[in-house]
Design brief:
The chain is α+β, with helices and mostly antiparallel strands and 332 residues long. The protein folds into 2 domains: 152 residues, Alpha-D-Glucose-1,6-Bisphosphate, Chain A, domain 4 (2-Layer Sandwich), CATH 3.30.530; 147 residues, Multidrug-efflux Transporter 1 Regulator Bmrr, Chain A, CATH 3.20.80.10. It is built from 5 helices and 15 strands. A hairpin with a 3-residue loop joins strand 5 and strand 6. It starts with a helix and ends with a strand.
């Protein structure tokens, strides 16, 4: 009996000590890893800022490539998000959302794991000439007993971060070398306001005309207080020897009550499976890009189901030509 009482007393004292230590354990954690990339291209920022790119580099996709990811919000950038769910217990369910970003400087995200644990993650970009130092961090606070896990988080999460950064480096440096990279995924259904226009077929004249027409749409969207969902889009309707016809579009949240007039129209780009081609650098010859896309389609036994459309990730009239980045979508 004395032995039993002594053992019981030991358990009680141990439990009390455990509780006291747990109370005073720090709840805050931070995990950080960094890598240097031999490129200064804005593609590095885009690779993270468009959440549809994540499955090509994030360390958790390969654990279950059948996991479901549902994309919501803007096409990329602030308020873009995706929810994931997997039968793999190591992945589970959760959500990631971009809560703040500043082009080519930082991207801040909120991670929600399961039903309770929330963390803030951040990517920071430090440009050093022709190189970028990329830092990925995650921090948050753990509740009571979960505070003991902070002793293992740096090693466990840090390993995943290092793997993800290594893949970003590989994809970005290859893209910088080839100046053209293709992804196969989806484009969301999105409402647009647009103006149909045409101009001479040279790339520079097209860009100048596009920009002039875009200003009309931006003024209208400001007047109607429309929420923008993405960057400007050009839908290519046709091209002759001397002329190109196109629609200048802005993705927006469009209520039925919004009325348009004059040249401005409203419509919808339907959801597509797409070949998403990212072109880096100065794009003087769109025919050349189109031929690369057609070659890719033929090589992979694919065919286009609708018109090509281009989203301007950087402003080609204001950006240094070598740093320009455009995204050409080919519906499949």
């Amino acid at each position: 009996m004395k032995i039993f009482k002594g053992f019981l007393l030991f358990i009680v004292i141990f439990f009390l000590i455990f509780l006291v230590v747990t109370i005073f354990l720090p709840s805050h954690y931070r995990v950080e890893r960094k890598i240097e990339l031999k490129t200064s291209s804005p593609f590095v920022f885009y690779l993270i800022n468009d959440l549809r790119n994540w499955k090509y580099w994030d360390p958790w996709w390969k654990l279950d490539t059948t996991q479901v990811r549902i994309y919501e919000g803007t096409i990329f950038g602030k308020n873009a998000s995706f929810r994931w769910s997997s039968k793999n217990s190591n992945i589970g369910t959760g959500e990631v959302k971009i809560i703040e970003d500043k082009p080519f400087e930082f991207i801040k995200l909120n991670f929600l794991f399961g039903r309770g644990m929330s963390s803030v993650s951040e990517f920071r970009f430090f440009n050093f000439g022709d190189k970028i130092s990329l830092v990925w961090s995650l921090e948050g606070d753990l509740k009571f007993l979960a505070k003991w896990f902070r002793f293992f988080m740096d090693e466990a999460i840090g390993k995943d971060f290092a793997e993800g950064l290594s893949k970003i480096k590989s994809i970005a440096e290859k893209a910088d070398s080839e100046r053209f990279v293709c992804f196969r995924d989806s484009f969301p259904k999105v409402d647009i306001i647009y103006i149909s226009d045409s101009t001479a077929s040279s790339r520079m004249e097209f860009l100048q005309k596009f920009n002039e027409t875009l200003l009309e749409l931006l003024e209208f969207s400001k007047e109607k207080n429309l929420q923008l969902l993405g960057n400007p889009i050009a839908i290519y309707n046709g091209k002759s020897k001397n002329t190109i016809s196109f629609d200048v579009c802005i993705p927006v949240v469009l209520a039925d009550s919004i009325e348009v007039s004059g040249r401005i129209q409203k419509g919808t780009i339907l959801s597509f499976n797409v070949l998403r081609c990212v072109a880096l650098g100065n794009i003087n010859d769109f025919d050349y890009l189109n031929s690369k896309i057609q070659n890719y389609l033929i090589k992979n036994g694919l065919s286009a189901k609708w018109k090509l459309f281009e989203m301007f990730y950087t402003d080609p009239l204001k950006t240094n030509p070598k740093d320009n980045l455009s995204i050409i979508y080919c519906p499949l």
